[in-house]
Structures are given as C-alpha cells and as structure tokens.
C-alpha cells in the first residue's frame, strides 16, 4: 500500500451563519505508523494542500505493541504543528490500551502523549475544548471508549449515560464535534447531541463489494452498518474514515486508504 485517496464530504449546518465562509477539516484515522514517502511527505503535502482550518484525529495513529515505535506518528504531528495547523486528537483503542496497561507497555503512552502536547497537539482524553474560527464557535470533544466496546461479537450495548458522565452535556448553541473512534454507536452519539461525529476503526470493512459496502468489522460483524463514508441521523452527521494504514490484517480490496476532507457549509442540509 503506497497510495491513499482523498474523499471529500460536504455538510451543512444552520449553526454556521449564512453568508459566512465555509470551514474545512482534515480527518486522520488508523494510520498505524504507516509512512507515505520520506518523513510522510506525501501525506503532509496532501493535508497542507487542503488549507484546513483544523485537523481532527479519530485515533489509532500508532500500534499498541511493545516493539513498535511511535516516532512516525509523532513526527507527522510535529510537522503539522510546525505548519501552524490546529490539531485535535481523540484516542482510539490502540492508544487507550497503551494508557490503560502500563504493566504491558511501560511508559510508551506517557512519552507519546508528552510529545504530542509538547508540540501543541490538543489531546482530548475524555475532555473537550472550545474552538473558534471566523467568529464561529465550536466545541470539540474526545471520547475514549472502554475496552469492552471493542470486543468481538456480540457487540457490547452502549449506555448513553457514559457520554454524559465522561463529557457532560453539550451546549446546543455550539456546533459540537465528537471524536469517537468506534462508529458502531452513532445512534447514541447523535442522541447525546454531537452535530458531527468523526470515527475510524472499521478500516472500511477491509474488503468492499461495489454497491454493497464493507464486508467485515474488527468485531467480526459481517457487513457493518457504519463502515465508511457519510451517514446522517436526525440532522446529525457521522463521517467514518477508511483509515490510512492497516495492522494484523494487512489487506485492502476495492478499499483504498483514505484522507478524509470535511467541508462545512452554512445553511440547511
């Protein structure tokens, strides 16, 4: 795998005042330490070319294995921050596993997190932060799903109260963006109040059948509902990235690696 494809998603929100300019976000997910060209130059150049207002990270940028290095991921973020791009990072199951089990991974997560914060990445471990652009106020939340929500079938039922417990209730006056690695629980994310949820994790279903979609999820569920792309529910949006890398099952069929570009426009969807 030496190439990725850009996928562009166009969303509308009445919270963005009419007559105001559009906003652009680049979504990164599931890089898993993959490198596109020396120093990730190809990926960095593609991100810069979009002139994004911010970079959103939906997790799993490295691999939770003791012999793996987090240097490729960290260097990418150092270079993105060197370009002055705001970066908001929500953990995936690999980062969460490393943080949860220092007896296995030692200080690997702490060193990685220190490096991210040191270069100015906003790391959202069940936290939120305000973000304002051109007078438009947003709130960006990073939600860490517990390990049990990544177990293989049957999927663990989600309790919406966990979002409120971890993050509080979103202010409906803001445009609320939720970084939540696993898209399976989109119905709960939207009911909680996320205007836009960004996710990854499913790697596009690994194998995609044209006209049908992804074949299998990491939870070994066939034809997962929220496999890749743009979904809506009750006026709320979900963007699921196919991911930029692979791990364990190093296979993609009709399923290119994805650099997701989200364009937010004013007005009704």
Order of helices and strands: EEHEHEHHHEEEHEHEEEEEE
Give the overall form.
globular
Strand content: 25-35%
Radius of gyration: 17 Å
- Please tally the helical runs, counting DSSP H or I stretches of 4 or more residues: 7
- Roughly what percent helix? 10-25%
Spatial ordering of strands, largest sheet? 1-14-2-3-4-5
Global mean pLDDT = 92
Oligomer: single chain
Which structural class best describes the helix and strand composition? alpha/beta
Number of strands: 14
Low-confidence stretches: none
Reported for the largest beta sheet, the result is: 6 strands, mixed
End-to-end separation in angstroms reads 35 Å
Quickly list its features.
7 helices, globular, 6-stranded mixed β-sheet, 14 strands
Explain this structure to me?
Helices cover 22% and strands 28% of the residues. The protein starts with a strand and ends with a strand. The protein has a 6-stranded mixed sheet, covered by helices on one side. It has a 6-stranded mixed sheet with strand order 6-7-8-9-13-12, with helices on one face. It has a two-stranded antiparallel ribbon with strand order 10-11. The protein has helices at residues 41-49, 71-82, 93-100, 102-105, 108-118, 161-167, 186-192, and strands at residues 4-13, 23-28, 54-57, 87-90, 122-124, 127-133, 136-143, 175-180, 196-199, 208-209, 213-214, 229-233, 236-240, 257-266. The protein has 7 helices and 14 strands. The chain is α/β, with parallel strands linked by helices. The radius of gyration is 17 Å and the shape is globular. The relative contact order is 0.22.
């Amino acid at each position: 795998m030496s190439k990725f494809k850009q996928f562009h998603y166009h969303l509308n929100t009445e919270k963005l005042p009419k007559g105001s300019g559009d906003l652009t976000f680049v979504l990164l997910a599931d890089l898993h330490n993959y490198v596109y060209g020396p120093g990730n130059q190809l990926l960095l150049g593609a991100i810069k070319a979009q002139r994004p207002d911010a970079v959103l990270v939906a997790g799993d940028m490295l691999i939770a294995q003791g012999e793996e290095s987090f240097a490729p991921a960290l260097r990418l973020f150092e270079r993105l921050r060197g370009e002055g791009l705001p970066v908001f990072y929500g953990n995936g199951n690999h980062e969460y596993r490393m943080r949860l089990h220092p007896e296995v991974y030692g200080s690997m997560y702490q060193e990685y997190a220190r490096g991210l914060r040191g270069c100015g990445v906003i790391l959202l471990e069940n936290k939120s932060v305000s973000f304002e652009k051109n007078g438009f106020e947003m709130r960006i939340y990073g939600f860490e799903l517990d390990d049990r929500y990544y177990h293989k079938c049957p999927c663990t039922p989600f309790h919406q109260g966990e979002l409120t417990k971890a993050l509080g209730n979103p202010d409906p006056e803001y445009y609320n963006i939720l970084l939540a690695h696993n898209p399976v629980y989109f119905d709960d994310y939207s009911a909680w109040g996320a205007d836009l949820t960004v996710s990854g994790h499913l790697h596009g279903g690994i194998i995609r059948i044209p006209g049908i979609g992804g074949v299998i999820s990491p939870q070994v569920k066939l034809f997962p509902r929220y496999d890749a792309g743009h979904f809506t529910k009750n006026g709320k949006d979900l963007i699921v990235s196919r991911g930029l890398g692979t791990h364990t099952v190093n296979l993609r069929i009709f399923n290119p690696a994805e650099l997701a570009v989200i364009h937010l426009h004013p007005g009704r969807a």
